[in-house]
Every structure is written in C-alpha cells, then in structure tokens.
Amino acid sequence: MLYEKYGLVNTTNMFGDALARHYAVGAFNFYNLETFAAILGAARQTKSPIILAVSESALKYISDDMLMAIVGGAHITPDENVALHLDHGHSFEACAQAIDLGFSSVMIDASNLPFDENVALSARVVEYAHAHGVSTEAELGTLRGREDENTFSDTELYTNPSDAADFVEKTGVDSLAVAIGTSHGAYKMKSDKQELRFDILAKIMNYLPNFPLVLHGASSIPQQFIQTINENGGEIKNALGIPTDQLQRAASTTNICKINVDSDSRLAFTATIRKKLAESPSNFNPRDYLAAAMETVYANTMYEIINIMGSAH
Ligand code: G3H
Ligand code: 13P
Ligand code: ZN
Known about the structure:
CATH architecture: Alpha-Beta Barrel
Strand content: 5-15%
Oligomer: single chain
Strand order of the largest sheet: 1-2-3-4-5-8-9-10
Bound molecules: glyceraldehyde-3-phosphate, 1,3-dihydroxyacetonephosphate, zinc ion
Low-confidence stretches: none
CATH class: Alpha Beta
Radius of gyration: 19 Å
Number of strands: 10
C-alpha cells in the first residue's frame, strides 16, 4: 500500500473501534503547515485517532508534492492511527489521483447526481480504492451551504433511509455521509433550539446496523471566535453552529463514526490573527501571528477531540 510509506492507516479499524466503543473520529480539514501541525499535534497530545482531511481545492492550494512532503515530514507511525483523507472528491480522477499520491481514505461526493449515477460513480471509485487498500466514503442526500469552492447547495434533502441501504449494497462503500440537518459553513441553525433529525438517523441505522455513518458540516462555531473576529475589524454576523450536546449525542449514542470539522479551525485561525495584528499594529513578523493562530487551532482541536468526539485515549 502506497500510504504505508507515510505511516498512515485506512479508516477500517478506526471505525470498527468507534462503533464498538461509542465515539467518533474527528475529520479536521487542513490546507497549510500551520493547520496540519495544529491538528496532528492535538491528536498526538490526546492519543486520539485522527482523519486529516484535504479538499480538492486545498490540494490545489498546497500542491501534491508539497502536501506529501509535509505529511512525510511528520514521521507518522501506524500505531498513531492517522488517516489522510480526500474530502468531497467530485470525480473518479480526483479520487484516483489522491490514492496514487498516498491518501489512505477517499470520499466520492456524487450526491448532486441522480441516485443511479451516484451509485455508478461511487462503485467505480470503491473498486479502484479497494484494489489499493484505501477506504471509501460516499454521500447520499444534500447538505445546505457551501460544500467547497466549486459546489453550492441551497436545498436540503435528508437522506432516505431505505435508499441508504440500497446504496451501500450496490456500491460496496465503507462509510456513508448522511444528511440529517447539518450544513457546511458558519450559518447552520436559525436558533440554538433547532434539532438535528435524530429520527431519520435512527431509521438509517435500522436499515444499516453496525455500519459507519459520517456527519459533514458539523462545526459547532464557537462563539468566542465570532466575537473576537467582530471585535477586531471582522464582520461575521449571526453565525450559529451545531450545539455541542447534539454532536456529543451523535458521537456517543449513534453509528456516526466520523465528524467533519473545517469552519471551526478557520474561525480559530482568523480570530487569532485579527486579534494579534490589532493588538500590535507594528508587528510584521508572520511567524509571530501564525504561531499564535496555530496554537488556537491546536487548543480548539484538542477541546473537540476530548469533548465532542470522545476519541481521546
Ligand atoms: O466541506 C468542505 C470543506 O469545508 C472544504 O472547503 O473547498 O474551501 O477547502 P474548501
Ligand atoms: P463545517 O463547515 O461544519 O466545518 O463542515 C466541514 C465539512 O463537512 C468538511 O467536509
Ligand atoms: Zn463536508
């Protein structure tokens, strides 16, 4: 397996353990040295399995070789339980490219296509991935909000539970992202009383017992970062995330094995840089404010690993 060269593992054993012991593995997106070091550092500090997630646009931003050099430079070992995952791959080619680079897990997101086309494309990726020992994720249903730089969905289509079972059987996929009311970005809920559709999740679990499910758009949007951003020249109004108690419930009482977080790290990073620069207007040393931003992402990732995922050992 190519990814073994980097000390990475696929998600099969991670999800088996998460199902058996009722927790979730955090999939945290990164896109530069600072976010990579913060997220991996938090996982190491808490002795937690971790999924390092890279979107297609993040891969384009860092570049293939630079990304793999950064991952290689971290000297990851298999006992650390680290997976490198392509987040929202939109084509067979994007998934195959990630696998050929050394990713240990890929998501094919064909959820915008009609059911049969989603099945066909996902099955093709699964076949290629499995031939390389790589684990797979696909998506059924649509999440509101910005999924990445190329896709925007303003409709919300919950996952149909019986379709989910049919989809998993036809594709052979290893995990499934479900739509139960989460959404990407910083504007997820109209109020903190709003509930995720745990009733739909329960029905999906009836159709797919013991099968790893994935929650996208699961940032909790910590309000202290929003406040710091707004107090230091930013303007992010009325942002609201998924309440942490609902995420804890998903991680500890359901078959949600993977919880995706990107926006929280972006907010932590941005809030810190805004504050640092506002506090010392004459500072022009990026190592100063980037180190501080990295530290905030590290602390927030540790907090979420311990208090939301429940994956610290
Ligand atoms: O769910 C998608 C992630 O937040 C990735 O976003 O394409 O801007 O890196 P990005
Ligand atoms: P957030 O926007 O809630 O962080 O979602 C992240 C995600 O789903 C990445 O795939
Ligand atoms: Zn997502």
